[in-house]
Amino acid sequence: MNVRLSEMNLPRFPLLSDDEMSELLIKAQAGDKQARERLINCNLRLVFNLVQRFANRGYEIEDLFQIGTIGLIKAIDKFDTNYNVKFSTYAVPMIIGEIRRFLRDDNPVKVSRSLKETAYKVNKCRDTLTKELGREPKISEIAEILDIEVEDIVAALEAVQTPTSIHETLYQDDGDPIYVLDQLTKDSDEEAHWFDKLALKEILNKLPVKEREVLLLRFFQDKTQTEVAETVGLSQVQVSRIERQALRRIKNLLNQESSIS
User: How many domains, in total, are found in the chain?
Assistant: First the structure.
């Protein structure tokens, strides 16, 4: 069910430039109600585009739109303008999270953890087989690989309603796409660290490929310099030098962003 903006009688506001967005965010967070209202109005299209993905869930699209707008308002209030990150990149997970919480809390049917885990394994296996076979795999083929009864697979998929690939694109603007996988978190307190992780990702993406690879292996996979050297095919001395260069480069990038802000 695709609903148009005109059908919801939403006012049309122009898209804001990055500079306009930053200026309004600063004013809104300082208590300027007009700036806050303009930010909300100019980002309603973003909310609307995301809400469309939750159609056919048994809820009126207008109701979900209102919930999504709450997520937008929270994003406006919490966004840290000191980070060199697009507002939309921060707002999308906030809007989606608000809608998902509403759907989860309002749903009277509780799906057991075992069914959710089975459905997750099935979807992951199906994605892998689709790439290998070049076609949609049969349930019997998935059942054979996972050693799960066909009936159990069907029950799990039905219990979680519409299965989706963890690599489905939720939203994409001028930057990298945001996937379903990016929204999978363990607890609500994970949200408190999400923005810092996003800023770190932005910094790492600015590093040369080799430096980024070494840092990911060293500090995200907890490998020693010797283990990293074996993985990338370099000597331990070379890895040590690359690591120092990368950390020095990150420090310089952070200092540059601090001076700009």
Answer: 3
Pair 155, 222 in one domain: no
Q: CA 136 to CA 186: how far, in whole Å?
A: 30
Q: How far apart are CA 90 and CA 85, in angstroms?
A: 8
In this prediction, residues 11-35 reach a mean pLDDT of: 85
In a domain, residue 155? The reply is yes
Q: Which of the four pLDDT bands, split at 50, 70 and 90, describes residue 72?
A: very high
Task: Name the token pair of 62.
Answer: 């207008």
Q: Is residue 18 part of a domain?
A: yes
Separation between Cα atoms, residue 173 and residue 152, nearest integer Å: 39
CB of 176 closer than 8 Å to CB of 164 = no
Percent of the chain with pLDDT over 90: 3
- For residue 194, being part of any structural domain is answered with no
Do 55 and 122 reside in the same domain of the chain?
no
CATH of the domain at 129: 1.10.10.10
Which residue has 């004013």 as its token pair?
27
For 169, the 3-state DSSP assignment is strand
- Find the domain containing 51 and state its range: 6-108
Identify whether the C-beta of residue 91 lies closer than 8 Å to the C-beta of residue 48: no
Q: Higher-confidence residue: 175 or 206?
A: 206
Instruction: State whether residue 178 is helix, strand or coil.
Output: strand
**Mean per-residue pLDDT over the chain, rounded:** 77
Q: Would strands 178-179 and 169-171 be described as parallel, antiparallel, or unpaired?
A: antiparallel
Q: Tell whether 96 and 133 lie within a shared domain.
A: no
Q: In 3D, which of 242, 236, 204, 241 has the Cα closest to residue 220? A: 204
